[in-house]
Amino acid sequence: MTDMAETFRPVVLVPVFDHERAIGAMVDAILKHPFPCLLVDDGSSATCAQVLRDLAARADGRVTLLRLPHNQGKGGAVMAGFDAAWQAGYTHALQIDADGQHDAGCIPAFLEMARRSPAAIICGVPQYDASVPRARLIGRYLTHVWVWVHTLSFAIRDSMCGLRVYPLAAVVPVTRATHIGRRMEFDTEVLVHLVWRGVPVLNLPTPVTYPSDGVSHFHMWRDNVRISWMHTRLFFGMLRRLPTLLGRRLA
């Protein structure tokens, strides 16, 4: 693997779980841009699995399909994608959700920012339309406040947006060596760990629409319990790192 300053080789990473109605349009939108695509099938149903195989087969080698034998959660799928992308020689992974809530037209802007700042993680900051549920907005704001506490920083403007670019040289060691939640808590938890390690964060506004296929895998009680436990872990992790974090603030 050559130094990131000398090469920039990104891949668009899409975790997929039973989004057979939306994924075709998402892949078509991704392939309008000159970047390869890695689909991670997170143990989807037979119907969705066949749709993904067909998409990969007709994409002239531009789409790679990684099939996980059973559902591991969004975080598990993304982490499996990181490993596969890193082993394939990619330097960066642009994560985008499969359900169509993110505008694939933003991909060039995100990757251009990553090319200019290859050591940074590029985080989407959602610009919502009227489709966003109000309860989601409230829950997201509470998580943002906790993230500012965990990091003693306002660097992360939104820790839950599923459109972002990861420098693989920074994130793969974290996901391999650290316990990171494998489901809906993943997006937030991995960002906090990256900030703790000193990875720079750049924020880029992006439009978000709720979701095009009507499929949401967020389970209100189960995932809120996981998120609460994540915040507990991160708070005590922050306390252990308090001298370092305060030192950065003073510097």
UniProtKB/TrEMBL annotation:
GO terms for molecular function: undecaprenyl-phosphate 4-deoxy-4-formamido-L-arabinose transferase activity. Residues 12-129 form the Glycosyltransferase 2-like domain. Its EC number is 2.4.2.53. Keywords: Glycosyltransferase, Transferase. Signal peptide: none annotated. InterPro entries: Glyco_trans_2-like, Nucleotide-diphossugar_trans. Pfam families: Glycos_transf_2. It comes from the Bacteria. SUPFAM superfamilies: Nucleotide-diphospho-sugar transferases (SSF53448). This is Undecaprenyl-phosphate 4-deoxy-4-formamido-L-arabinose transferase. It comes from Cupriavidus pampae. The gene is arnC_2.
